[in-house]
Amino acid sequence: xxxELEKLKSTNLELKEIINNSWDGIGIIDFKSKFLYVNDALTxxxxxxxxxxxxxxxxxxxxxxxxxxxxxxxxxxxINSYNTDINVVCTRKDGKPIYLKxxxxxxxxxxxxxxxxxxxxxxISDDQILNSYVISSHTDKYGFIxxxxxxxxxxxxYSKSELLGRKHTIIRHEDTPNELFENLWDxxxxxxxxxxxxxxxxxxxxxxxxxxxxxxxxxxxxxxxGYTALMFDITHExxxxxxxxxxxxxxxxxxxxxxxxxxxxxxxxxTISIIAQKLSLEVEDxxxxxxxxxxxxxxxxxxxxxxxxxxxxxxxxxxxxxxxxKNLIETLIKPYKRVTEFEINCDENIIIETYQDxxxxxxxxxxxxxxxxxxxxxxxxxxxxxxxxxxKKDFIELNIIDNAGGIEPQNITKIFEPYFSTKxxxxxxxxxxxxxxxxxxxxxxxxxxxxxxxxxxxxxxTLPIIN
Length: 467
Known about the structure:
With about 475 residues, the chain is of the alpha+beta class. It has 15 helices and 17 strands. The chain has helices spanning about 1-20, 40-45, 50-55, 60, 65-75, 120-135, 150-155, 160-165, 180-190, 235-280, 285-315, 325-330, 355-375, 410, 430-445, and strands at about 25-30, 35-40, 85-90, 95-105, 115-120, 135-140, 145-150, 195-200, 205-220, 225-235, 320-325, 340-345, 350-355, 385-390, 395-400, 445-455, 455-465. The strands form four sheets. The protein has a five-stranded antiparallel beta sheet, with helices on both faces. It has a five-stranded antiparallel beta sheet with strand order 7-6-10-9-8, with helices on both faces. Strands 12-14-15-17-16 form a five-stranded mixed beta sheet, covered by helices on one side. Helix 10 packs antiparallel against helix 11 and helix 13 packs antiparallel against helix 15. The longest helix has about 50 residues, at about 235-280. The chain is elongated.
């Protein structure tokens, strides 16, 4: 008898040690959920000491919205031992919320419950993040929506109540071919994963595109019970592609137009130039007539140069080059140092891949504009151009700032228009910045913006590091 008693004590001690060493919180509660026993793991989970927990009722630690379902679970567990699990949110001693997966089991005496509590806060947090940011939906095997993420609702503009029980045709765009959906269903019904792009329409009738992956969901017997779809919004990327295509089309049209103009104008301009030169030799003594012929010759030359400038704008770029930006700038400013001061702020290691000749053309055009503005304003001292280059993620920002007097507010919005010029008539035809803007946008895939403040002008250019 003494031997049996010793075995029982030994078994109880071993059982107690196993329970205390469990990673899960374990306790014994009564029908009101008052703690009668707690293991070592339950104290750090809830933040209370063992003695403090033994003076508490578990349901008092549960947030209000979960209290009734938990008490209902206890009641049902006395009848049906299969209803054992529930997720609840409790408030720790430090006031922080904690998500617990709680399992209750009625003990053999039918008076107490064994409570097992597992901390699932991280899993719930991960699910919440996925729900907020991953566009997903679940359907039954017939295609009716059974679950959607908050991100799905945000993208489509529909609430969950408007989507649940409906088919995905609620967002299907009328342009989407039937063949696409026939292929989709044939693929997933056969148990395979389907991948593809789908054009959809939001509740407010805006169009959006998603890159979609759909996989079957199986039960433990291997039967398909539904489907899970993960979607990635690619609307912005497709819009950018369309803009690139539009720019390419624009470039092709300009190319053909300039080639036609060049072909049609070249011979008449040559003829006018030759006749003017002949007449100038014959009428050398007539000063006014000779001057008029010089003006004709000069205008013919300007027209010819304009054609060359436009041809240069649209012709093929050639090969891209790896450029050390600071070295290039230091080389480019050398011819201008005799007329103005330069300040360069640029890291040594900024490198881009681009069309160097195009970039040099734009740089020279902008610097010449600054120097000509200084000359028009008769600046003799304190002339300065600052060049500031910064690297920002996958592009660079190039600022060329002069103190040449600035640009009038009424002119700043017209500065990139063709044939607009703030110079005197004989000093330019207003194509420099127009061509520079088109080179940057069409060839260098960048942007250009001009601002003027306190008699300074800032030309800001952004260029991709690799385009």
